[in-house]
Each structure stands twice: as structure tokens, then as C-alpha cells.
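Fold this sequence, please.
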Amino acid sequence: MTLTAEILMELEDIACRKDQPLARHTSMQVGGPAAILAEPEERAGLALLLQTLHERRLPFYMLGSGTNVLFGDEGFHGVVIKLGEDFRFIRRMNENDLEVGAATPLTVLVGRTIDLGLMGLEFCQGIPGTVGGAAAGNAGRDGIGIHDGITKVHGYTTRGEYVTINRGDYSYGYRKVEGLDIIITSVEIHLEKADAKKQKTLLEKYDAVRSKQPPASGTAGSIFKNPPGDFAGRLIEQAGMKGYCVGGAMVSPQHANWIINKGKATAGDVLALIEEIKNSVNQKFGILLETEVKIVNPQ
């Protein structure tokens, strides 16, 4: 019996599939197979899964909606975990505080806060992905990140132990979080009573920003972080890379910090194009761009 078969037998109560093409689970639509794709529907199943993987010392990767991640053509030689429906919820705790499940789409959360007459997450309007993914990378815009409103993070250690971490017990900055080394299952967010006019203005502003970007399908969002005092998209465009192609991957003619899968791109095409962009910008401006998209090693 193979190790994969043994794991599948041990986790028979959790939805698991073997050799799942990751291209089907990521917005860039590239990537080889995951040895196992596991989708625990509730907390007990997730805890059991993590305990099993820890005991067997098997690698795993937490995947949200797959909008800011790039797997190689080799895939992932471990377990990719996607949280099920029980991790998708929004619960009002009091007048200004919500607990939100990690699998909840950001767009759903923004819409719900509007319905509840609350504000503070307008900058998330139009950002693809889930709350868990946003919290893991401190997604945001205009110098604001989602952790500016988060007060507590709930989740599991890699051993399957449930923990709650207060905001003051970890640090965060532009597109990064440090000291929050857990599998996030939900967050608590503090919001303010909405000023309808101000909220409408902010939502229209971020809708306009999103309208200037390519559709989410066949892309992975912003590929590079903005360097201090500048914009990655501007640098890439000035380096003459707009519309540049490697295989089936192309720098978007609409927004230079986005890469488009023209239909038949491989992960190798996308990775090669990322390196071409970095080299071109570095040669022209002496700036080495840092990737924002998460590039996952096959393990």
C-alpha cells in the first residue's frame, strides 16, 4: 500500500482526492497535481487532519480561493488543504464586532458589512480571495491592511491544537504578517458605524480601481509588491514589458503588474516571465522587485 493510500484510509471521514490538478483550483489556472487535496468541512476534521500530517511529518499547504498563489508544473508532493463550508460564516458579536470564517470570500464580507451599516473594510472591495488568505498576507490598499481592523485570530497549530491569538501578540506590515504561525479558521474584526456618504465614495473609488485591472480568471492578481515610494506596475511598464509574452503567459496590456494566462500557459511560462520582468526592471532602474504572489515549492 502506498503512503498516499494509507493517508486516504486514515482520513476516510474527510473529503480527500488524490492527484488533483492544481490548475483547477487556482485563478491563474496553471500548476501540476497535488498528491492529495483535502477539504475538511468542520473544525474536528481539520484538527484530525493536521494531527495526522504532523505525526507522519508530511508537508501541507493551506489554499484559500487560489487567487494569489502559483504552483509549479510539478504540483505539490504533499497535502493541499481547502477549508469547507463550515468555515464560511459571518457572525455579529456585538454592535461593532464580527467573527468571520476563513473561507468567507472578501467580497461577501464587504457586502455584509454594508448591509449591517458598518464600515472599515471598503478597501477590500473588488479584492479576490478569502478572509483567511487576506489575514495570512495582510491584504489591503492605500496603506491600510486587513489587520488594522482584526482584534483576534482563531486557528490551529500544525499539531492540531486550537489557539486564539490577540492582535498585540503578532506583528504585521505591508503584505506581511509575522508571529502568526497558525492555520487560520476565523478572525474577529472591529468596525465602525457607517457614514453612508463616505462609504459610498470609498466604494466607488475602489470599484474604479478594479475596473482598470484584468478579470480575475486566468490571473493571480498583483504579481509584485510595490517598492517604497513607487508602483511595480509603473516600473514594469516603463521597462517596456507591457504585452511581453513567454509561452502562453503575457504581461497584461491593461495593468503591467498582472500576468495573464492566454489559455495554454504552463507554470513554467509564468515563472520565466516573472524572472524576465525582474531582470528588465532591475537593469533599467536598479530595483529588484519582490513577488507578492506566493510561489509554492513542490516539497
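The domain at 3-85 is CATH 3.30.43.10 (Uridine Diphospho-n-acetylenolpyruvylglucosamine Reductase; domain 2). DSSP finds seven helices and 20 strands in the chain.
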